[in-house]
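Tutorial, part two.
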Amino acid sequence: MRAVAAIALAAVAASLFAFATTLQTLEARIAPAEAGLRFALLRRLVRRRTWLVGSAAAVAGWPLQAAALALGSVALVQPALGFALVLLLAFGVRVLGEQVGRREYAGVAAIVVAVGLLGWAAPASTGKFTDAGTAVVLAWLAVAIVAPFALRVARLGDGLTTSVAAGLGWAWVGLGTALLDDALGGRRWVGALLWALGVGAASGGALLAEMTSLQVWPATRAVPVAFAFEMVAPAAAAPALTVHGAGPLGGVPFALALVVAGGGAALLGGSRTVARAVQPDEDP
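Running the prediction step on this input gives:
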């Protein structure tokens, strides 16, 4: 029952994240290109009401993600956030009148099957992070924070690079939130505060990279890359970072489910229907 509750909470969080992505993208697309990977981009966006409403939805979704991670493992909750793509698909169909084809049906089926398989194959809880695992997470945090600025200095502000940076940043938010939950459960208040600050910092870096990617790349490319990394990377890394292991049958069902989840994200994220939901002015 805890796994079911975790999936349900993750699905609600995903709906808020999907709504946020749609509204934020509307404003990011009309921001000046020269503001990409700069704080100037976020300073401009925070003055836009539509973007702020989207951001408020994302902020409201994070406690639900945290609650889901308190009930289920990172390996289960992060892939379940792929339901955001399913909701974007539904929005594209119901509101924009887009058509659904075999690609979309296959993407939905892949995500549903993957999450259902993970409900059995994924560990019940994230488990205790090892010392080495915690060190890796801290190093990952540093990368998530500095990536946008490093990419700007290196002049690597293309769509693929910024989408990967965004996906890795949001992936870290999942791991950091799990560590925050663990610290709160153990009443380690200082540690909880530090992990909360880390979540905020990583979110800022991921958001800047994501908004830049949506400026310079079509949604059909930016969305699947970022979502695939956010869904799969923390789940795949969790067995090596914690003591819970890889699940039954030597981790084969777990690994298979992650591959299927990533494939579903690629199919749905690359769908014109989903792209139109994120970015209504997307070219056919």
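Residues 2-278 form one domain. In part three we will examine how such features are distributed along the chain.
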